[in-house]
Amino acid sequence: LCKKTKSIIPAILLHIINNMLAFLG
Length: 25
Fold this sequence. Notes:
Layout: H1 2-24
């Protein structure tokens, strides 16, 4: 569960960053 969480959190952050870049760009 810890390993899954550690891999899921960066994926969520990347998803949020991509959405913000798409929104700004």
